[in-house]
Design brief:
Length: about 260
Amino acid sequence: MTQPTEDPDVAERYSDIVARLAGAQKKRTRGAPAYSIYVNRKAGRYLAAAAYQLGLTPNMVTVISAVFTFSGIVMLATLPPSIGLGVGVWLCLAIGYAFDSADGQVARLRGGGSPSGEWLDHVIDATKISSLHLAVLISAFRFFELPTPALLLVPIGYCVVAAVAFFAIILNEQLKRVYGADPAPENGHSTVLRSLLVIPTDYGFLCLVFVLLGAPQVFFAAYTLMFLANGGHLLLASVKWFRDMERLGSVVTASGGQPVALGR
């Protein structure tokens, strides 16, 4: 009686998928933060290869991402701060973020995404961006011993900054497509220094900050610094983005095209 043998190509097939994803990885976005480029994108690649082998669709991967993310957010809003909670929230948010990177890579492996998939991904992203900071607000109100209630304005302000930044980035890409510009130009490469400088704006780095929940005052101090950094970055970036749109409009007008007013 012969013994069943393992297929020697299984591991190779998985490694081939990972290699194919690495070769087809979308270009780095100029100024993209280091965690997203060097950690999350690679983690998403391995998850995407496994999901592809299991036959999961991109939307299934998006839903898995949402389950992890919102589990962490609910834990944050309902449980008292502790070391264990901090690690648990971080893991849920970080795993959800990795799956968020994986869904698009699964779509590329399957031959491309769909409008419904892109819609689902963006709506879930928009929901988590706001609800995460509202969960911090709830946790701070219920469990933190803040020196003044005025500090509760920090997570409210962070919620506004994060939501506006997300909308502005999506709008930038949409306007460039409408006006025929490349949303990711060839010269839009990132550098290691630039990626490190914008780490405070990285959602993945924000996830890591929740490890500090075991020491609420330390966590809130780090969270406040993140808020200030993100607020400053949004202010400076908004000036640049507005000028980019002015130049884009000038190019369209000079070429004889008709400007397109979205939502008007």
